[in-house]
Design brief:
The complex is a heterodimer.
Chain A (H helix, E strand, L loop, with lengths): L1 H17 L1 H63 L10 E6 L9 H15 L3 E6 L1 H10 L4 E6 L8 H12 L7 E9 L5 E9 L1 H5 L11 H77 L1
Parallel strand pairs in A: 1-2, 1-4, 2-3
Antiparallel strand pairs in A: 4-5
Helix pairs in contact in A: 1-2, 1-7, 2-7, 3-4, 5-7
Chain B lengths: L1 H16 L24 H4 L4 H14 L3 H8 L7 E6 L2 E7 H14 L1
Antiparallel strand pairs in B: 1-2
Classes of the chains: A alpha/beta, B mainly alpha.
């Protein structure tokens, strides 16, 4: 009787000497730790959820702006399609990368810079102008020698045509005479998929040398205006579409983050409850064994 | 609309050409030494790029709107980009794009 009653107490006592002291302390600490982590994950979930809601509300506007801007770009490119304009082979191309300043939107920026690096690998004789800090940070490590211009503050809100015009003007001021300006941007395939594609704005020479230009009556002086205007149109299109992609990608990323945070919260909640229960049970066992032991005496 | 705007922009030029300012009437094209509808417009002679010309025209239209639509549309004309030139893999000084474009414009006008 005595031996049986004392055995758990002994075991508990022995354990108290050997293990529970750290385990108990550690158990208590992990409970605190788990609680802290649970709290921080809950905060993160709140933040990502809010960002998702913000992105969702901005998404409809961004998509509308994208649809509007597409008309600009496509209308202005109809001429070059009809005239079958081809870029000149022998001269330099300027690569414009339409990324943006802000992250937390999945892999769309790195997708762009990957596409740019692929292009640079096959055409090393290319200059690069970058819109947005993210692609700048990535490409300034990969190909710093090719960069000639970088723009910041891009695509904070829905890009305006004034932005596109100012950028086009600055690009026109570059000393080099480019055969064509190739703009890489994320095209909006659907709400889940974005694909880095490129559109081209040609130089005057390329336009005059295009196969089918004779079907148009073009004033020579109008040609340089046309070139600048086509570049601004294409930039506007690329920026608006890239912006819509970014917002959409941010919405998705934040949705996933909230979902993951929710899963983690569940897991930690269960762990926390189990630990708490274990601690309570342990304390009860100690109390009861203590009580039985003292009742026996 | 374009002919109208270019005629307006050509106004200062024409005043110089017409000795007697009272005989000049901007809408009578027979008094203008070169036709206003030709592409060699004054904006080009002044060193403006086509984009710049469009931006100024758009700004003029925006400013002449009523208050409600004007406020809504003026947001579309805002531009506060910053940019930096790169040389040999090094980023240069970060500057305001609007300022740099204005300077380039002033330089082009001097030529």
């Amino acid at each position: 009787m005595f031996s049986r009653a004392v055995r758990p107490a002994l075991r508990a006592g022995g354990a108290a000497v050997a293990r529970p002291a750290p385990a108990n302390a550690a158990g208590f600490a992990t409970l605190r730790e788990i609680e802290g982590r649970l709290k921080s994950i809950k905060n993160i979930e709140k933040i990502t959820n809010t960002m998702k809601i913000v992105a969702s509300t901005r998404l409809t506007r961004a998509q509308k702006a994208m649809d509007d801007s597409r008309v600009y770009g496509q209308t202005s490119n109809t001429l070059f399609e009809q005239a079958e304009t081809k870029p000149l082979e022998d001269k330099k191309t300027l690569l414009v990368i339409a990324s943006s300043d802000k992250g937390l939107c999945g892999g769309i920026h790195s997708g762009l810079s990957k596409a740019a690096r692929r292009y640079l690998a096959s055409n090393p004789n290319t200059d690069v102008a970058i819109l947005g800090e993210k692609a700048k940070a990535q490409l300034s490590r990969a190909a710093p020698e090719n960069i000639v211009l970088s723009f910041a503050n891009v695509c904070k809100d829905i890009p305006t045509f004034a932005d596109a015009q100012a950028i086009a003007d600055q690009i026109a001021l570059l000393p080099e005479d480019y055969a064509s300006v190739r703009i890489i941007y994320n095209s909006f395939v659907n709400a889940q998929a974005y694909e880095p594609v490129s559109i081209e704005a040609y130089s005057e020479e390329a336009i005059t040398q295009s196969a089918n230009i004779s079907s148009y009556e073009v004033d020579d002086e109008a040609l340089s205006s046309l070139r600048e205007y086509a570049l601004a149109n294409n930039l506007f299109w690329a920026m608006a579409e890239g912006h819509a992609c970014e917002i959409s990608a941010r919405r998705n990323a934040m949705e996933n983050a909230s979902k993951n945070a929710g899963e983690m919260i569940n897991k930690f909640q269960i762990l926390y409850n189990r630990q708490r229960q274990a601690a309570i049970t342990g304390e009860l066992v100690e109390i009861i064994t203590g009580a039985t032991a003292s009742a026996d005496m | 609309m374009e002919s109208h705007v270019s005629a307006n922009i050509e106004l200062p030029n024409l005043r110089v050409e017409c000795r007697n300012p009272y005989r000049f009437h901007p809408l009578q094209s027979n008094q203008i030494s070169h036709p206003p509808f030709k592409m060699t417009a004054a904006w080009k002679a002044a060193g403006l790029t086509y984009n710049r010309y469009l931006a100024i025209a758009a700004r003029t239209v925006r400013r002449s709107l009523k208050d409600g639509p004007r406020l809504a549309s003026e947001r579309r004309g805002q531009m506060d980009l910053r940019f930096a030139k790169w040389e040999n893999g090094k980023q240069g000084e970060v500057r305001s794009l609007a300022q740099a474009n204005n300077e380039a414009l002033a330089q082009a006008a001097e030529k």
